[in-house]
Amino acid sequence: MYLPEEIRKDFPILSREVYGRPLVYLDNAATTQKPRCVVEAIMDEYYSVNANVHRGVHFLSQQATDLHEAARERVRTFLNARSTGEILFTRGTTEGLNLVAYSFGEAFLSEGDEVILTAMEHHSNIVPWQILRERKGIVLKVVPVDETGQLDMNKYERLFTPRTKLVCTTHISNVLGTVNPIRRMAKTAHSNGAFILVDAAQSVPHTQVDVQETDCDFLTFSGHKIYGPTGIGVLYGKESLLDRMPPYQGGGEMISRVTFEKTTYERLPYKFEAGTPDYVGSHALSVALDYVEKTGMENIAAHEHKLLQYATERMTHIPGLRIYGETADKGAVISFNIDGIHPMDLGTLLDRLGIAIRTGHHCAQPLMQRFGVEGMARASFALYNTLSEVDAFADGLERVRKMF
Ligand code: PMP
Predict the structure, then answer these.
(1) 168 is catalytic
(2) Ligand 1 neighbours by CB, cut-off 6 Å
(3) For the segment 44-79, what is each residue's pLDDT rounded down to a tens digit?
(4) Which ligand 1 atom is nearest residue 30's CA?
(5) CA quadruple 101, 105, 111, 114: dihedral sign
């Protein structure tokens, strides 16, 4: 039996008040709150283990290294990667995407080569490719999105040419909630001799992701969106590709031997991890992954689906409200607008009721342009949200609408 009221006890912040009202936190796609076990893991490591990793012979350094490398193994099993050499720690999704754009771009792309993006990408999966276009003269092609928020898969399949080298797609849209068919997209990419990079920032917190089953070549996510700390993320990459890619940054940790004439690099994954890593963050992330798996990914998905359905049902009764993203199998986000109300006003008034939602372009301006709006309001759910919070949110929307 899934009991969100019990789960909420693990998250101290959820019991605080905002403007004298109970906090209703519905901005989970931006970042999630942290369970006590994650915060305590950070505190415990700083209080009793802290030392720089990999370089020390002393006890603490070895213990910190063991925790850091155990976290890598934990991520490997979480994603079902073949080896820990395929698990790179990064600062987050954005850094993972930039790493691939830079390093894959350096190794595999030259002028006139084509990269396919989708119209629902986050800026983090657009701008690095535009920077690469400036540097190398690559060509960017975009898969369109239809009115319901689905990718046009026929168009996708027709975008490939012999120059297509890479597909970059989000797994779940942070705006529309659309779950893209990444397995099918990977198959199409591979049959055209191209690779695929998956932005899993919005999927790993809500659904099981298996990199071998989906056969993606790269996949990246952020710790802070899956109840872990901010400042740590993961890039998965197939060893056969990472081996052929140059380092993204130079510095300590990533070298085998340095002379002024020539430097040789460390084996994977260290070749891509210059400088002192966030070894406290990696351990805390592994604790967050344990927490999620203990709660059960299927339980989380089922609970969030219930919240989403109930919220959608309540919102469809509000006159003038339009929901963006209407696919049946959606992630736990609802983006919307209400006629005659600026999303910013909506967000500000809900905030006064203690309800935290996000408003604006959601780092997806091309998608806003696609739907002909400046911005949208967005509510996003997590494992600790409740049906009564959905009621508070929908009541709040009705109240705000009546004010205009
Ligand atoms: N991609 C998607 C789909 C996202 O939702 C986000 C965060 N909003 C990012 C990338 C960027 O993540 P981060 O800021 O943690 O690097």
Answers:
(1) no
(2) 29-30, 92-94, 122, 124, 170, 174, 199, 201-202, 222, 363
(3) 999 999 999 998 899 999 999 999 999 999 999 999
(4) 8
(5) negative
